Structure formats: C-alpha cells, structure tokens
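## tool: complex_structure
## caller: assistant
## args:
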Amino acid sequence: MKFYFMHLMPYADLDLSYDEKHNSAWVTLPNSYYDPKKGHLLYNRYLDELEYADQLGFDGICVNEHHQNAYGLQPIPGVTAGALSRRTKTCKIAVLGRALPLLNNPLTVAEEYAMLDNITGGRLIAGFVRGIGAEYHAWGVNPATSHDRFHEAHDLILQAWTEPGPTVYEGKHYHFQYVNTWPRPFQQPHPPIWIPSQGSSETIEWAADPRRRYTYLQTFTPVATLARYMKMYKATAEGFGYEATEDQLGWSVPLYVAETDEIAYREAKPHIEAFLNKFLRMPREMLLPPGYTSIKSMMGVMKAKASLSGGHTIDSVLEKGMFICGSPTTVCEKLEEYQSEIGFGHLLTLMQFGTLPAELTRKNLEIYAKEVIPYFREKAPSARARAAART
Amino acid sequence: MSVAESIETIAGCATRIMRGGSGAPLVFLHGAGGAPTWLPFMQTLSKRFDVIVPEHPGFGGSETPDWLDNVGDLACFYLDLIDRFGLEGVNLVGQSLGGWIAAELAVRNDSKLKTLTLCAAAGIHVKGVPRTDTFMLSPEEGTRILVRDQSIADKMLDVPESDERTMTLLKNRLTTAKLAWQPRFYNPDLAKWLHRISVPTLILWGAEDKVVPQAYGAAYQALVPGSKLKIFAECGHLSQVEKPDEFVEAVTSFIREASR
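## result:
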C-alpha cells in the first residue's frame, strides 16, 4: 500500500457563523468573507505541510480542484502542483482535478500536466474528474453535457499525449485542427491516470476497461460503500478477462492520529465537524444540477431527500468509517482491517480538514509518518512472502 | 368538448400531443414545466380554435431524441410538425421556454403563421435586469415563484408524490438545463433577428413575474416590429394559469383583430 497526503486547502479562517445568512460555503457565499492577507498565510502554510510530507517519507502528495468556495482554495491546482514540483524531491504529485468538462480547451490540461511531468522528471499522477455539481454553477458550464464532454476531453488529451502530432481531433464538443502538444509527457506513454469518484458503476466500467486500467479512487464515502465499489471494480475487470491489481484501487479519507484515542477524538472533533457542517454545506440543487447524475440515480437521491446541509457529528462519520481517528494502534488496526478486506493499493489521507490548525496538522503528519506508515511498510514484505508461499 | 391524446413520430421523435376543439389552428408551446394535462385555459380556447398542445421532445411523454441540443433544434422540429399536420394560418402561442421556441421558429420561417403570441417568453437578455436562477431553486421554491397568488402554488404542490411524477420532473429539468443552462435562458443571436417576424405579434406578461421580469416584455415589444404588449396586473409568470380568463380573452381578441 502506498501513502499519500491529500490537501484541500480550505479557507480555515472562514467566519463559521456565515450560515446564519448564507445557505452554502460554495458558489454564492460572498467572497468578501475571504481576506487575502489571511489567505496568503494559509497558502504558504499548506504548501509547507505538503512539502513536509515529502520529507516525512510519504509516497505522494495530492492537490485538488474546486471553484468559488471556502472548502478548497485551489481553483487552478496546476499552480499549487507547480509550486510543489521544485520543492519536493521524491514524492509523487497527484493533481486530483482537473475537471475536464468545465474547459473549453482541454488541451490546456494536456499541456499543464506534461509540463509538470517534465519538471518533476515523471513524478506526476494525472487526475481526471468531472468536478462536483457546484462547479457547473460556478463556471457556467452545462451539466447536461458533462459526461459527454468528459469523455471527449479525455480522448483528446490521450490523443495529444500518445499519437505523434500534429493530428486532428473531431468531436461533438471539441474540434481541433492541430493537436500537437509540446512538451510531450516525461512518462511514456503517459503519466498514471487516476479517476476520483464518489461512486458510479458507469465510471468503474469505463476506468476498468482493459484499454485503460485506470486507478479508481473512491472519495469520502462510508467504508461499506467503498467496499462495494472496490468489489465492483474487481468484478468488472474480471468480466473484461483480467485481474485488477491493488494499484488500480484507491481510497481517499480524512484521518487524524494522536497520542491516544481520547486525545485524537478531542482534538479532531471541532475541526472535522466544521469540515462536514460548514465547509461542505450546500443545498441539493447546487450539489446535483440536472444531468450531473443519471435520472436513475437522481430518483434515489430525491427519495432520500439528500443534501449536504449539516447535522453531522464526529460520531456519525466514525461509525460509517468516513473518518479514521485514534491512537496509532487504533488507526493501524482500522486501516489493516479495511485494507485486507477491501484491497486498495493507494491510501490518500486528508490530514488537514476544516479548521484544523497548523500545529495539529503537523503532529498528525508526524505521528502518521512515524508510527502508521512504517507499520505497513514493514509488514508488506512478509505479507508478500506469505502470498508467495501460498502459490 | 373532449381532448384527444396521441403519439406522433415527427423528425424521428415519438411526440405526445393533446388536441381538442375546432376552428383555426392554435399551437401552444409549453414552458419548462411541461404540459402533462389539458388545462382550463386550453379547454376555453378549444371552443374557438383547433388547439394543439405538443409536449416538446425531451419533456414528459415525448421521447428525447439524439438530435436535441438546443432551442433552435426545437424551432425546426415545430416547423416539421406544422408541415406534417398540413397546418396553415397557425396561431402560435408560446409561454416562457415555449415562447423562446416560438420566437426562434418565427425568425426562421413565419410563412405558415397567422399570429404569434409570446407569453413571458425567455430567449433574449436585457442587460442589468437579472432573472431568478430557477436552477438553484428546490422543486417547491420553483413552483412558488411561478405565481403571485400562493394559493395556486399550494394546489400545484398538493399532489401525491409518485415515481412517475418525480421521473417526469427530473426529465423536464434535465432537458431544460440542456436547452437553457448557459447562457441562462437566452440565445445571444436571437435578438439580432427578431425584426424578421412579419406576422402580428402579441406580447403578454404578468406585472409581477419573478422568473422573467416585465422589462423583458418591453424589450421583446421593441424588437418585434408592430408588436403589442399587454401586462396583466397582479399576476406572476404563469398568466395562463393565474389569470386564465384574461389570458384567453387577450389571445382571442388579438387573433380576431388580426384576422379582420
């Protein structure tokens, strides 16, 4: 299993009483709530945290993309990835954007990713996403064509990376007379591609296709849901006639580890609850614009009357396995249990969430790097030996 | 007088059509909410007209064809429908999204039209006059904003929930987004060509329309040569529902005068 530190870069200085006047931290929350002086400090603090993870021996660090919100301040993740590409030396850098359907010219992503891959000498992991529903409000892009544009943009980028240019691209949404991207990617034929998703059988079917075999990354869902989708990926791969490797399965989850269970719970509680109830807050119409999900899945949502409108507690997310929190022993046990049952090969932990301050974030990273990661790295060879002995 | 319901395949799309009454043809193009039922104003109009109410491709009981991308596609579809039914001297009435389709149709070819009525029509943009972003509204908020008289909204909302109803709601909302998400409910090119409309045109608007404000009515009136603007007092976006008698009277007398 490989270990990554994922950062959303929230506006942690957000006035949390905003929700007395506004129904969301996204799209319509006035940006007068943002103070650039505080933002300057936050950006640099967060970049320091990501660089620190490289020094601590994480396998990778991950940046993220969201637009017009206080939840994550990386509308253009290539900027943060670019800043990190020179200051980090060994870790992978995963860009878990880019929201392809938002773009009128997806070749910008082919170019941006190729630049990052060249600068880092092949440390880039290329994420392709559709963005969450709110993005379609924020960027004025039609959600009804989101799936189509995603697939076309993906095909276009892969064409740019893998077919000697210049070539022509003729799609419904995108047309290019000259596809001839300079630079070409450092990694050949192209950087590893990861597909983050909140869970979708269509996405799994597409990612698991033997022509792609992309890493499917399940983001912020109950562990039971994670297990279901990971199983679905493996079954889908089997249906295609091959066995999916752990490298094709990833999980992204908030995590907080401290000296004891009690300390971890007490320190994490206000910050994970702010993350859930304040930073993620939005009405259903903002989260799920028409066409973002199929009518079939929307039927389920309408019945569940789902929205991300708060009322979550640390206990509710701990119970569902949407948050991992405790002493190193507790965290290792949980992760070992989930990993052995579910078999994911990439673990992306969100170790700063909501209002979690700098000193607690650092402590979280340090304890994780010293006591959790080594536990798995040390047991890995023996696990491999056991597996080898069985065959 | 009874209404007949049928499915006709036009431009490869199985289309649900309600038709009732006799007289000169009157085609009503519905708004974003669809046209699931034969409403009282349709019934009243059918005493004088051959009232034809199709559900747009992508809405309610009609199929969603692969070719459906924008409002221009629906304008051409309805030109096909007029030809297919062999209609002449059509009185075309469009409400909201349907008004936008009607205007796009008339700009392309109004040779089969006798009159055009645009009621609270989308399709153009008036700078500095914001519309409500209906895509941000919940189903209940989206219903309440349509009418001034909230007792009408209460009745519209007081229907038992069913899978079929939810499915239709989602289907209509999806097609509306496809047609009108960006730019919101207008085509930047339409205003440039509204001067081509050569048939008598009536613009109807509720004085208290919160979805497409009254200023849009004045803008349409200024853009369509010789058109008349009539404002219904104490009325929201759905004047045909909120003020059905005044609506029918306005449409009927306008068509009568235009026929002289």
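## assistant note: Chain B touches chain A through 18 residues (CB under 8 Å). The mean pLDDT of chain B is 97. Handing back to user.
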